[in-house]
Automatic annotation (TrEMBL):
This is Archease. InterPro entries: Archease, Archease_dom, Archease_dom_sf. The lineage of its organism: Bacteria, Pseudomonadati, Pseudomonadota, Alphaproteobacteria, Hyphomicrobiales. Keywords: Calcium, Metal-binding, tRNA processing. Residues 12-145 form the Archease domain. GO terms for molecular function: metal ion binding.
Amino acid sequence: MNATGQISGFGWEHFHHDADIGVCGRGRSVVEAFEHAALGLTRIVTYSPIAADSRVDVECRQNDLELLFVDWLDAIIYEMATRKMLFGCFAIRIEGLALRGSLWGEFVDVVRHAPACEPKGATLTALKVARDDNGLWSAQCVIDV
């Protein structure tokens, strides 16, 4: 089991942060980076396959792109906790500083998913959403677990 899901420089990775864990998504667009970070968030909980049985829609609005990223991850964490679900597929649209997203997943099966921990929230620690010199986007922050 590794702590990355990268393909050709895109994808997600975890990074160490004391008792918590950092998540970083990368992609050709800010949307792709946010979606990959969401998958990295799920991989904090489990590496098991997640069926796309149910769809949940979320909306976030913020005054800044970095805070929008935190709200996006917090929306996923909220839906995981309240619905007792895991999500493995994500699709979002960002218009200005408003995000509309769909999460696809299934109810937690403790035996099959063997959840490692429960994320409590996205934090402002190590928060960064930026485009690098090659035009690739990254979105990262520390998740309180």
